[in-house]
Amino acid sequence: MATLTRQDLNFGQVVADILCEFLEVAIHLILYVREIYPSGIFQKRKKYNVPVQMSCHPELNQYIQDTLHCVKPLIQKNEAEKVVMVIMDKEHHPVERFVFEISQPPLLSISSETLLSHVEQLLRAMILKISVCDAVLDNNPPGCTFTLLVHTREAATRNMEKVQVIKDFPWIVADEQEVHMEEAKLIPLKTMTSDILKVSHSQLFCTESQKLNEIL
Amino acid sequence: MDYLYLDNIDEFVNDQNKIVTYKWLSLTLGVHVNTAKQMLYHYLQQKRNEGSGTPLHATYLVSGKCVENGSKCHKVSVVREDKLNAVKAKMDVTISVHVYSVQRAELKDSSPLYNTDYDAVKENIKNCNKYSTIRCAAAVPMSSAEVQRAQEMALVPPAGKEISKTGLNENTSATPKPSAKQPAGIMGMFASKNASKSQESSKEVKTEQKDDSSLVETSKSKTASKANPMSNLFGKSAQKKADEKPNKSVKEETAASSTAPAIMEQSQTSPKSKIDIKDEQSKVSSALKVESKDTRNKTKRPEVVDSDDEKMESQQKKRRRIKKPQPDSSDDEVVPDSPPVPNVQTPSPKKQVKREPVSHQEVSITNNTLTEKGYVSESYSESEEEPEPNSQAKDSSSLKQSFGKREEEKKEKREKKTSTANKPTKQPSIMGFFQKK
């Protein structure tokens, strides 16, 4: 059995690959489940041996892929702290945030056969959790949009600004408005810990006071 | 009879927010499936009578006889509670109805149901029907020797046939992003853009394939480093590719002399074997699995887990859909907020035409260079003059360079290729095109 340790060049790449694939699937699934886009653009595909809904829209897919493509080097160097998918209403106030916290445990090695199928199992469980998350979430107002934010450790973004990983796909510092959410309620969804990565997926949503006034 | 199970189910559903299917419940609690079904029913009744707390949603399995498309059939469906009565009314004879699952969330499609059962069944794979009533005396696990033999048999016929786009899916260690999306009806709207993207990625992978087997080795070693189970599966298909490669190179050498009709025949038969390969690939990797869009009335055939037939059927359905994109064009209006997509209105006749060449193209990669040449010639003429391509097939030497370009032009294909052999005349223009990219 080949054993890779942290020092191996491939290792970081492998972890980043796995994680980015998972994030892509998760993002598409959140878009489907939270009805950000009409369900007509989604198509059933297979990932980790279970069906998942992925969008067919090329520009949407391209946006997500480009974003993750830029995030991947950060994950490889363990500089990405969390990837956040913010769902905003028409006025660009955040309504929900799906936060994927990523950390890599210090002692890492990919060794046994079962490891990756174990990871697959954990990711499957994550996907399942996303599918049922609307049991614990309120419905979103119509006309929501989403955006992806990345929180990095230290000053990794400075490098990103210098080197455009993808042409014509610039990253900008997020507005405070998008990042900060008032009266946020934290709902943890799922945590998975494995030997190669630790991902916790928590969700914050905001019950804005304006909303309450409307109900009353 | 103790009612502890009610508390158990309550915990699963409300506290852990799980989807509790009867199958999962029977495996978890170690009871017969019929008992599990009754437990779920009992739980539902109790909760509904209490009338308090969070709303529960349930899905039911309805089985009965009905007449569909003029023929009688036995239909088994998983339906949401709100559709239950409608489905029951549609059936001539309702044979059985039972609770399939209970959950808090209102499910939008059937994928989480499958997901729930997947791991539970996988763990108990040796005796997953321990608690079920379905039995077949002949269904015993194969010995490892038999398994080996079956794998070899599966590898041999497809060898020498196409790798096709599934090659994209299985060994894209270079491009981990999801591989090219197969066109479907709704894709008509996005077709042009998507086709160009898929062509790019397919171009990358195919040029990879076209290069020496050393590339296959490196990609193999990459995947081997990724994981052994994955690499076993990948290795199998990568090996298959490697086997096919010598066939391909031999064929390329003798390309000029091979006869056109023979190739056309082969390309006809290979779509069928492609389905077999797709079955394998779909097991191997995150391959595309386009299922029928039946989300409203969730239809599950009883043998849901590991159903090759289902995959084959879905492939066949996909094929059917490819040939008839028009009926689904009504889906184009579904996306009101989508950002303006240029080239949206590709005329529909083009749609059909371009799909068919796709399938043949997939066929042709490892199979016959002459068929590929046919494509090459098309793309050539298109780059120079817009109108319909003539088939001036080129030599295999130019094939590799023009291969990628052919992918580019795929979206503008007019008609199927015919294959004759000529010398290339427009070498510089191809490279020019590449640089333009």
Automatic annotation (TrEMBL), chain A:
Places the protein is found: Nucleus
Keyword Phosphoprotein carried by entry: no
Residue stretches making up the HORMA domain: 13-203
Superkingdom: Eukaryota
Keywords tagged on the record: DNA damage, Nucleus
InterPro entries given in the database record: HORMA_dom (IPR003511), HORMA_dom_sf (IPR036570), Mad2-like (IPR045091)
Gene3D superfamilies cross-referenced by the UniProt entry: HORMA domain (3.30.900.10)
GO biological process assignments: DNA damage response
An example Gene Ontology CC term for this record: zeta DNA polymerase complex
Hydrolase among keywords: no
Protein name: Mitotic spindle assembly checkpoint protein MAD2B
Organism: Cyprinus carpio carpio
Phylogenetic placement of the source organism: Eukaryota, Metazoa, Chordata, Craniata, Vertebrata
TrEMBL record, chain B:
Pfam families referenced in this protein's UniProt entry, alphabetically: CDC27
One GO BP: DNA strand elongation involved in DNA replication
Matches recorded under Gene3D superfamilies: DNA polymerase delta, p66 (Cdc27) subunit, wHTH domain
Polar residues bias (residue ranges): 166-176, 215-231, 255-272, 361-371, 392-401, 419-428
Signal peptide positions (record): none
Keywords of the record: Cytoplasm, DNA damage, DNA excision, DNA repair, DNA replication, Nucleus
MF (Gene Ontology): DNA-directed DNA polymerase activity
Residue span of region Disordered: 162-437
Cited InterPro entries: POLD3, POLD3_sf
Compartments where located: Cytoplasm; Nucleus
Biased composition (Basic and acidic residues): 200-213, 240-254, 273-282, 290-304, 404-418
Keyword Metal-binding applies: no
Predominant cellular place of this UniProt entry's protein: cytoplasm
One Gene Ontology cellular component annotation held by this UniProt entry: delta DNA polymerase complex
Name of the protein this chain belongs to: DNA polymerase delta subunit 3
Protein's organism: Cyprinus carpio carpio
